[in-house]
Amino acid sequence: MSFTTALPTKFILPDLVSHCDFKLRMNRHHKQATAESKRWLFRGDNLTQKSRKAIHGLKAGQLTSMCYPDAGFPQLRVCCDFMNYLFHLDNLSDDMDKAGTKNIANVVLNSLHHPYDYYSPARLNRMTKDFYKRMLPTASRGTSRRFIETMDFFFQAVHVQAIDRAKGVVPDLESYISLRRDTSGCKPCWALIEYANNLDIPDEVMEHPIIQSLGEAANDLVTWSNDIFSYNVEQSKGDTHNMISVVMHQECLDIQCAVDFVGKLCKQSIDRFNENRGLIPSWGSKIDKDVAIYVGGLADWIVGSLHWSFDTTRYFQNSGREVKRTRVVNLFPRGK
């Protein structure tokens, strides 16, 4: 008698929404900023109807408006443009080899370092300079520097990811976590918290271990939860740059056990954020106020990203509301 083990057809999501008690808010300018940002993204493009539909379903403007709820309209518009742009970069990098990612990095980083002088025929040159030149007048020097530095980190990590993908390498968990903190694109988004709220926090404060730990905990939650939510789509494409795949490979776990494992880490990252929030030192009333706004912005990102993940069609197509209610994800077949 022979026995065959049936492949799993579904998995259950961890209940991260209930574990996060931060208040979800929406920026009052979200409709106008969202509409204008999509027009900006579509201007001069050659996107297919399918690609445009995906961008509408992405709801990047909603994500931005929940993550920067107190931003004024000009700042929110820049953040919306960057969010659409970041997802555009993510989609481009998914389809590119290491040479392609390096070329994109050169265009983007040169555009950021030389927004008034550098020219390339690449559309990314125009897009990068356009949103960044609107950011510069009110961004502090430290904010601008952190934004460019973290974009550089992003491209360095994406380059490594492209090499791993080409070689079919599944990294170990520790290496993956380190790399994912940069491929996520969260770090430049943290710089935009400063920009969106007109903050000018001294470098020594931003570099304090507790502030760094808060940013890392928020990054981990946003990134690791995203790996859970996006796993179904990514496994259907054979993409292994996902924490679920890494854990399954390293720990020899099935899908559900790996999802539970990563879900536990996500909950611990929220707990870590809350613990560190209570350990913030004082630098005087003015700086303390700005730091509180910045840390509140990280919390907005945590709660905003969790709820947005079920509203966008990027991960659960049109079933996000049902998945949010039941937490059941039906696996797509490979090659979908």
TrEMBL record:
Entry keywords, A to Z: Lyase, Magnesium, Metal-binding
InterPro entries: Isoprenoid_synthase_dom_sf, Terpene_cyclase-like_2
Pfam families assigned to the protein according to its UniProt record, in alphabetical order: Terpene_syn_C_2
Highest taxon in the source lineage: Eukaryota
Family: Belongs to the terpene synthase family.
Enzyme Commission identifier(s): 4.2.3.-
One annotated GO biological process: isoprenoid biosynthetic process
Name of the protein in question: Terpene synthase
GO molecular function, one term: metal ion binding
Cofactor(s) recorded in Swiss-Prot or TrEMBL: Mg(2+)
Keyword Thylakoid: no
Enzyme class (EC, first level): lyase
Species whose genome carries this gene: Suillus plorans
